[in-house]
Design goal:
The chain is of the alpha/beta class. It has a domain of 82 residues. It has 20 helices and 22 strands. The chain has a 20-stranded mixed beta sheet that branches. A hairpin with an 8-residue loop joins strand 21 and strand 22. It is globular, with a radius of gyration of 30 Å.
Length: 701
């Protein structure tokens, strides 16, 4: 095969693509490309829920594929609340990884993010079978740490992660000594990190995970004596460096040692994250000069920050309304900011009034915050180069905003702005309200959000070519929406956030130009003119007028999960394609059928979008017994954003036909009818053919 692009360049392009569908589609273009892209396709794997064991078993029976894996992250209980069944189910993928380890020759990173730490035998198998393994991580959960675990037998690590996300809803047993002094980690862990891993680059201790629920307080005092010349990222959560019983010592020795530790890593640190230090009143140290990411617990700690940070995480404590003005001022000074995570809570908070806002000395009635406006102003205070925004809104269900308000948070580009907003990732956590959009509809409205700028009204512009659509976030690639139950304990960080449903949507936009015949005068100078019919017949013929119709298409690839409200196998994957013409032209798309009309909630021109689907979509889909059972279980929940096929309702009838045929064949003499009915149901032919067979049987009698 003659290739225009050299294979080396093609492989380099594939290496920079988003892992997943993009690399898969590229590998399926040809066999030769597939052979070269194949190692990249399975290079980085992150698995959640029941997909963890299925993929590990797939790698077990295909050692050639397992040899290409370089990073493996398993989250078998992602966003799930612990149960005996779920905890027992985690042992199976752990045993599969233990068997798979000898085939993972090129594995460099392995992370287990489960309810509890897996057995020591799994780590021993990874240590023996993966000679290049340099990054490991696990979740502590609620069980005591095994000091003899093979987890602490590794050497020469470059990355280590020890999270303590709690999947239990009940609080662990309270020990006042551990609460004040901190839980001591095994000495073998510090020996592995400090003595046998001099080239450590990434260290995470005590992270709260996706649900931000953590009740373990660990002691990190041995860390104060460590020195890693290549340390680039440090994250410490809910840790102790002092005894809480000695709060009167505002300038303790350990606080000075921690300041010396940060000072010693000034030239290497790029990401620094620490908060909720037990007993911390003030830590006096200078921030590293090359710091890009910072996360702390209180806003006053940001006042002295003069570094051009690229990432800021403010999820250690919730921000209420009165802190927003100061927060906006601090964010406006971070011109290099690319990623922002923040926890907001407007529950029972009202705006404070100044003395000037009083009538004859009588203060006015306090007003609740306009949350949509406040959040939009928060976004607008960030630089236009912001690429990722994560909002955790723990406001109670009664006072929180609707999903339909999320598009109004996005800043509006105007035509006179030279640089537009570069937002690529938007993630919102909030409590669901009754009678509001589902996740799918909310994601559609966010993807279709346009600016408030009016179209070009220049009279010299051509009326045939309508103005283009100006999206509020033109570079948006992913949308993550999470509906969670924010109880009072969760808002105080004493309880976990119950994740009710979770949806991730990949956004792809494109603008195409179609052609249609028209009676309007139109001249297209960019196209070559074919020889006219007069050259062959000698007769003149008026040329056919053709106009170009610009059309916009938005495709959302959805990955939804029910989390704690549904079984783990209920993970619908589907694709939505939306189309709209620009201006007054009629939407046309060859090979597509126009479906439901959708009106963008905040479109300045009230633009109409239509769902598109292939015109040759089959009416009857061949299904397995398991898929029939699962899909019929989903039919009764259409409000959760599932794409329900109209033929799914007939699956129950098909099952009845099969059962009836088997009964008639066993108990009656009409074997032909039973055989035909059984074969009809097994092929998924539908009710119409079954009715025809019944009429044929009646005539044959």
């Amino acid at each position: 095969m003659n290739t225009i692009i050299p294979i080396d360049i093609l492989v380099e392009i594939a290496s920079n693509l988003n892992p997943g569908p993009d690399v898969l589609n590229l590998s399926l273009t040809s066999k030769r490309i597939h052979d070269h892209i194949y190692p990249i396709l399975f290079r980085d794997i992150e698995l959640r829920d029941n997909h963890a064991r299925k993929t590990v078993q797939y790698l077990l029976i295909r050692p050639k594929v397992a040899h290409t894996v370089q990073s493996l992250v398993l989250r078998p209980s992602f966003l799930q609340m612990c149960s005996k069944k779920l905890l027992a189910g985690e042992r199976d993928p752990a045993r599969d990884v233990e068997s798979l380890a000898p085939n993972l020759h090129n594995l460099r990173k392995f992370v287990w993010d489960g309810i509890e730490t897996p057995a020591s035998s799994m780590w021993a198998s990874l240590k023996l079978g993966c000679p290049h393994l340099r990054e490991i991580g696990t979740n502590l959960g609620d069980e005591p740490v095994d000091p003899e675990s093979e987890l602490f037998a590794f050497s020469d690590l470059t990355g280590f992660s020890l999270t303590s996300e709690l999947h239990y809803d009940t609080l662990p047993s309270f020990d006042p000594i551990i609460f004040c002094h901190g839980e001591e980690l095994p000495p073998a862990l510090w020996t592995m990190l400090i003595e046998r891993s001099p080239r450590l680059q990434t260290l995470v201790l005590g992270d709260s995970g996706a649900t931000m629920h953590n009740q373990r307080r660990i002691s990190v005092r041995p860390l104060l004596h460590a020195r890693w010349p290549y340390l680039r990222s440090l994250s410490i959560t809910r840790a102790c460096i002092d005894d809480l019983r000695e709060l009167v010592d505002f300038d303790s020795t350990n606080k000075r040692k921690f300041s010396a530790f940060i000072e010693a890593h000034h030239n290497s640190l790029r990401h620094l994250s620490y908060y909720v230090f037990g007993g911390e009143i003030h830590v006096d140290h200078r921030d590293p000069p090359w710091l890009e990411h910072q996360r702390r617990d209180y806003l006053p700690h940001m006042r002295d920050v003069r570094l051009p940070l690229q990432e800021i995480s403010l999820t250690g404590i919730k921000f209420c309304g009165e802190l927003l003005p100061e927060l906006k001022q601090q964010l406006s000074g971070q011109r290099e900011l690319r990623k922002l995570e923040i926890w907001m809570d407007f529950s029972e908070h009202v705006q404070q009034l100044d003395l000037q806002e009083q009538d004859y000395g009588i203060p006015k009635k306090p007003m609740a915050y306009d949350q949509t406006t406040e959040l939009r102003e928060l976004f607008e205070s960030c630089p236009r180069g912001l690429e990722s925004l994560k909002l955790i809104l723990s406001t109670n269900e009664k006072e929180t905003i609707y999903w339909r308000d999320i598009p109004h948070i996005l800043p509006r580009n105007t035509q006179n702005q030279d640089r537009k907003y570069q937002l690529k990732h938007l993630e919102v956590w909030k409590a669901p309200k009754s009678k509001e959009y589902g996740l799918r509809d909310a994601a559609i409205q966010i993807a279709l959000a346009e600016t408030y700028s009016t179209p070009d009204s220049d009279p010299s512009s051509s009326p045939v070519i309508p103005p283009s659509i100006e999206f509020a976030a033109p570079g948006l690639e992913t949308i993550v929406l999470v509906g969670c139950l924010c109880t009072a304990k969760a808002r105080l960080r004493y309880g976990r956030m119950h994740v009710l449903f979770h949806g991730k949507y990949r956004v792809h936009r494109q603008t195409v130009s179609d052609e249609e015949d028209s009676d309007w005068p139109f001249v297209d100078n960019t196209r070559g003119i074919l020889p006219s019919l007069a050259a062959f017949t000698g007769k003149t013929q008026a040329p056919t007028q053709v106009k170009t119709v610009p059309q916009a298409f938005v495709t959302l690839t959805a990955n939804e999960r029910g989390a704690e409200s549904k079984p783990t196998w209920v993970i619908p994957h589907y694709r939505i394609q939306l189309g709209a013409s620009m201006g007054v032209n009629k939407l046309m798309m060859k090979g597509k059928k126009i479906g439901k009309k959708i009106l963008a909630a905040n479109s300045p021109s009230q633009r109409e979008w239509y769902m598109l689907k292939p015109s040759d979509e089959p009416n009857v889909i061949r299904r397995t017994w398991r898929s029939i059972t699962e899909r019929n279980a989903l039919v009764w929940e259409p409000d959760d954003g599932l794409e329900v096929n109209l033929w799914l309702a007939w699956d129950v009838i098909i099952v009845v036909l099969i059962t009836t045929g088997l009964i008639l064949q066993h108990f009656c003499d009409i074997k032909v009818l039973g055989k035909n009915l059984a074969s009809t149901g097994s092929m998924g032919a539908g009710v119409h053919q079954g009715w025809q067979l019944w009429r044929y049987y009646q005539r044959s009698r």
